C-alpha cells in the first residue's frame, strides 16, 4: 500500500478539501500512516497523521510556552482549540531533536537523537512485515496490538472501553475506576456507579444498567468527549462543527465549590457565576499568599469569640472534626470553647441539629445555601473583622409556634389532670433550661411519655388526638357511605361528629405496627399545627382498623380548580367506584385568579417548610401533588396526607419508595436508587405543582400536547421558555393570561425552576422557596436542568 496520503485522499474529494484547509494554518503535511518507509518522524517534519475521515489528527505540538519544546498528541481537527484528546510527554516536553522511528525489528520508539536515549517505545508484538502507526476514525492511535485507548490521559471518547480504565489524572484530581473523583488528600467529592461506555448519542452507560444522559442526548451528528477538567470537574462536551466550539452537555459536579482541594487551608470557596470560583479568607484570617489563610491574631486557650459564617461548611466532616450528637446551640458553642484546639464549630439547621467541632487546619471550606449550615469561626476577642457571610434566617430564634404550650387541662378525671401537671412541670423545667430545638423536644417528649408510663399513667391525654371507636366513626360517616377521595393510603369518607363538626375519615390500608406504636406516631402527627396543614382531630385503632380523623376541608382539592375536568384523577376514581356523591354534584368551579393562585402557592410552601425545617426534618411529605392540596371556602390552602410515611410498615419501606410518589411529581432521585431521598424530593414535587398552578395544565398533559419528542423534559422546557426564549407566556394558563400579575407569575415560575433542578443539592430548601415566593430573597438565575436519569427499561 502506498504510504502517500495524497493518493489516498484524492479518492475523497471532501477530505482533500479538509486536507488543504488543514494545510494552510498549520502548513503541515498529512499522512495516513507512519511506517518504516517514512521513518523517522520528528517535530521538524511538520507532518501530521490524519484519521481516514479527517476527524482526528496526531503529531508533534509545541507546548504553550514558546521555544524548542514539544509533546506528541492526538487532537480534534475541526475544533477551534485543536483540543488534545490523548498525549504523551505533555508534562515533560522534549526538544526538536526527538523523533519517532520504527526499527527493522518492528519497534516503534521515540528517541532523543542527541543523547541516543529512548524516551518511549512499543514493540509491534506481531510478525507483520511492515508495522505501521495509524489513527483510526474513532480517535484511537494504533500500532498493531498497542493502542492509545488503553493508555488514558484526561479524556474519554465515544465507544472507548472505559471499564479497562483504572485512573484518569489531571493536576491534583483523579478519576479512579471510572467511578470516583478524588482530590489531593484522597478526598472523594463525586461517586457514581462505574461508567462503562460513552455512546455517540450522548449517554454514559453505567455498570448497573442506568444511564446518565447529556442535554443534547439523541444527536449523533456531533463529536463528544468526556474530560476531567483542570478544575476537577468531569464534563461531557459536544462539538459544534460549524463554529468549532465545545459545549458542556453534562457535568458530574454542579457546584464547583464542592470539589475538594479547590482552595488552600482555612480558605472558603465562593462561586463566581456558574462556571467559576474564588477563594476568600474568613474574617479574622489573612491571605497567606499561595498556601491559604492564617489567623490574624492568636487567642489564648479557652477564650476568644465566634464569628458566624452563614451557609459555610468546612471539610469532609470525618477529617479533623468531631460530630457530636444533636444538641442545642449553646451547648455546641461551649464544647468548642472549652477545647483549646477547636478552631470553629458548625451547626446544621436541617432539623438534625448536628454540632460539629472543627480542628486546625480547616480544609475544603465552601459557601452554599445547600449546606443549611452555619460555621462559627473562633477569633481573638479583640478582632474587629465582621462576617461577610450572612443571610441565613435566624433559625435559632425561630421558635416552633405550637409545640411547647399544652392545651388547657380538660375537665376529665383526676389522673388526667395529674398527668398534665407532671408533664407541664417537666416542660417548664425544660423551657427554663432553654430549649432551642424542637428535635430535642421530641426526644424529650418520648422520654416524658415513657416516664408517664412508669408512673402508671397512660399516653399523653387531651391535647393529643382524640381516640374514636370504630362504632363512633361508622355512625359519623353513615356506615362509610360518602366517599370524597381516594389516595395512596386509603379511601377518604365524609362524615359529621355528634357536635356538628364535619370530618374527613381516612381509612388506612397496609399499616403495620402495633396499636401503641400507631398511637404514638399519630400523636406526633396531630401535634403538627400550621395554618396550611389539614388539622388532625383523632384516630381509631380498634383491632385491625386504622383510621385518621381530619377536619373536613370544604372546597376539595386544588386539581379540580386548576385543571380542565378531563384530567381530574379523583373524578375518574369516583366514576369507577360508581359514586355519585358530592363531587359530581358540585356546581361548576370558578377559575382561580392570580392572587389566589399565588396565595395558595405561598401557603403550601410555608406548610411544607414547616414540616421540613422548623420542627421535624424527618417529616417528608413524599407525595405532594394538587390532589393533596385542599382548599377552604376562602381558598386558603391546606396540605393533607403529611406524616403518613411514618405510619407505614417499616418492612414495606423499600418497595413503598417505588410506589410512593405520583408519576409526574417524583424527583429524579426516586428513580436513581443510589441517591438518598431527602427533603429535597418534596421540593421537586412542589416545583412541579407550582408550574401547574401557573400553567393550569398537568405537567404530563403538556407533553402530550406538545409531542415534541421523547427527549422532552418539562423542567428543561420551562427553563428554555423563561431564560432562553424569554417567552414565559407560553407557560402561563391561557385562560387568564390577560389578567396576569406579572411579578407574581414571574416569581412563581422562577422559583419553580429552582425547585425542579435534577440534582437534589441544587434545589433550595423549602424555607428558601417560601422566601423566594414572598419576594424577600432575590431569585438568581438557576442552572439549566442538564441531565435526568432514565429509568431502567
Ligand atoms: C521526516 O523527514 C525525514 C528527513 O527529511 C524523512 O526521511 C521522513 O520520511 C519524514 N517523515 C515524515 C513522517 O514525514
Ligand atoms: C536530549 O539530549 C540532550 C543531550 O544530552 C539533552 O540536552 C536534552 O535535554 C535531551 N532531551 C530530552 C527531552 O531528554
Ligand atoms: C544508540 O543506542 C543503541 C543501543 O542503545 C545502539 O545500538 C546504537 O548504535 C546507538 N546509536 C548511536 C548513533 O549512537
Ligand atoms: C512470529 O515469529 C516467531 C519467531 O520470530 C515465531 O515463533 C512465531 O510463530 C511467529 N508468529 C506468527 C503468527 O507468525
Ligand atoms: C468519522 O468517523 C467517526 C467514527 O466512525 C464518526 O463518528 C465521524 O462522524 C466521522 N466524521 C466524518 C467527518 O465523517
Ligand atoms: C501509557 O503512557 C505512560 C506515559 O504516558 C507510559 O508510562 C505507560 O507505559 C503507557 N502504557 C501503555 C500501556 O502504553
Ligand atoms: C458502547 O455502546 C455502544 C452502543 O450501545 C455499543 O455499540 C458499543 O459496542 C459499546 N462499546 C463498548 C466499548 O462497550
Ligand atoms: C453551531 O454554531 C453556529 C455558529 O456559531 C450556530 O449558528 C449553530 O446554531 C450552532 N449549532 C448548534 C447545534 O448549537
Ligand atoms: C464561563 O461561562 C462564560 C459564559 O457563560 C464563558 O464565556 C466562559 O468561557 C466560561 N468559562 C469557563 C472557564 O468555562
Ligand atoms: C490570596 O491572594 C492571592 C493573590 O492575590 C489570590 O490569588 C488568592 O486567591 C488569595 N487567596 C485567598 C484564599 O484569599
Ligand atoms: C467584607 O466586605 C467588605 C465590603 O465589601 C470588604 O471591605 C471586606 O474586606 C470584606 N471582608 C472580608 C473578610 O472578606
Ligand atoms: C489534623 O490535625 C492535625 C493537628 O491537629 C494535623 O497534624 C493533621 O495534618 C490534620 N489532618 C488532616 C488530614 O488535615
Structure description:
With 793 residues, this protein is of the alpha+beta class. Among the domains are: 27-150, Agglutinin, subunit A (Orthogonal Prism); 155-253, Agglutinin, subunit A (Orthogonal Prism), CATH 2.90.10; 268-379, Hepatocyte Growth Factor (3-Layer(bba) Sandwich); 592-793, Transferase(Phosphotransferase) domain 1 (Transferase(Phosphotransferase), domain 1, Orthogonal Bundle), CATH 1.10.510. It contains 18 helices and 42 strands. Mean pLDDT is 76; it is low at 1-25, 393-463, 566-586, 649-660 and 789-793. A hairpin with a 5-residue loop joins strand 41 (629-631) and strand 42 (637-639). It is 24% helix and 24% strand. Strands 35-39-40-38-37-36 form a six-stranded mixed beta sheet. A five-stranded mixed beta sheet has the order 1-3-4-5-6, covered by helices on one side. Strands 28-34-31-32-30 form a five-stranded antiparallel beta sheet, covered by helices on one side. The two termini are 48 Å apart. The longest helix has 22 residues, at 594-615. One 2-acetamido-2-deoxy-beta-D-glucopyranose binds at residues 88, 150-151.
